[in-house]
């Protein structure tokens, strides 16, 4: 009994001592590409914080023209100035993008296409997690609306530019949480039943299904597409969940930093020779497992058609 009590008292200390090794074990996977990006153009959504910020910083460090596409323009401007100062690259720009409003998405795309002749890297990074039930400006449930439909529309609007700029890449940030997700077509907007945690999982599954179907449709176009699980990362994503914030603090020593979490996105955006892996899901900079639901191309095609219908995208244009 005394031994058990002693172990319980010593356990926090042992975990603290072992934390660096455990974190290293959980954070393997580093982008080793040496690719430089002068003349290349990249868009990173949600790059005013967390993984997106670190991704944008690395792309700028390599010489790309980087667009920080975010809802909070003021915060984005501060981040852009920080990146410019750190990298010496003044070609870091901020543009308003609210993925919860299709008018904002269309306005962003229109402005970007007017300003730029090329787009080589699109990283669909922004997202929401475990929100109380709410709807976007267009009446979509917030998780599916922002995490899936918002990026679906953005990618659609920028796709011709990506094709013209080929070879180019699209990276969709998903999550291991997709394994708990299901696409309930009869309840896609969560109006019949709703769970904040599961709604997030459903939207992350949608990211992977979108990636697979987009890759299938883009075969031979020179545009390759990947989905990624960044790992468990310190970020603002858990701001809506008191429980998740507590868990993040409790296990903070074992959670990836945003810089570590950005590595797989960077790998898929930069690594040479990944073109034949288009449509695959990555974690720790290598192809990884996805659930049976995420491999179901029948569901992927149906989700594509439903998404086009919800967003008012004509079938002729959706065929790519």
UniProtKB/TrEMBL annotation:
Protein name: NADP-retinol dehydrogenase
Chemical reaction(s) catalysed: all-trans-retinol + NADP(+) = all-trans-retinal + NADPH + H(+)
GO terms of molecular function: all-trans-retinol dehydrogenase (NADP+) activity
EC numbers for this chain: 1.1.1.300
Protein family (similarity comment): Belongs to the short-chain dehydrogenases/reductases (SDR) family.
The keyword Ribonucleoprotein is annotated on this UniProt entry: no
Broad enzyme group: oxidoreductase
Keywords associated with the record: Lipid metabolism, NADP, Oxidoreductase, Signal
């Amino acid at each position: 009994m005394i031994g058990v009590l002693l172990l319980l008292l010593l356990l926090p200390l042992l975990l603290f001592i072992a934390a660096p090794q455990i974190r290293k074990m959980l954070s393997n996977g580093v982008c080793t590409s040496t690719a430089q990006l002068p003349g290349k153009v990249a868009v990173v959504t949600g790059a005013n914080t967390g993984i997106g910020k670190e991704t944008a910083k690395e792309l700028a460090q390599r010489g790309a023209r980087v667009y920080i596409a975010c809802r909070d323009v003021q915060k984005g401007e501060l981040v852009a100035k920080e990146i410019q100062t750190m990298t010496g690259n003044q070609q870091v720009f901020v543009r308003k993008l609210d993925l919860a409003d299709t008018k904002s998405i269309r306005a962003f795309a229109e402005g970007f296409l007017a300003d730029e002749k090329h787009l080589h890297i699109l990283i669909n990074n922004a997202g929401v997690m475990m929100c109380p039930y709410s709807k976007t400006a267009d009446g979509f449930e917030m998780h599916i609306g922002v995490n899936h439909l918002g990026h679906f529309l953005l990618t659609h609007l920028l796709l011709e530019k990506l094709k013209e700029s080929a070879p180019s890449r699209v990276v969709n940030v998903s999550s291991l949480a997709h394994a708990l997700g299901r696409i309930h077509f009869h309840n896609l907007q969560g109006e019949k039943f709703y769970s904040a945690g599961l709604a997030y999982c459903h939207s992350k599954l949608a990211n992977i299904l979108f990636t697979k179907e987009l890759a299938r449709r883009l075969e031979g176009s020179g545009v390759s597409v990947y989905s990624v699980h960044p790992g468990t990362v310190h970020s603002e994503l858990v701001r809506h969940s008191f429980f998740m914030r507590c868990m993040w603090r409790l296990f903070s020593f074992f959670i990836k930093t945003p810089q570590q979490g950005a590595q797989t996105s960077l790998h898929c955006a930069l690594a040479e020779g990944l073109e034949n892996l288009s449509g695959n899901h990555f974690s720790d900079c290598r192809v990884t497992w996805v659930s049976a639901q995420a491999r179901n191309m029948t569901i992927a095609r149906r989700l594509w058609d439903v998404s086009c219908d919800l967003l008012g995208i004509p079938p002729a244009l959706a065929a790519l």
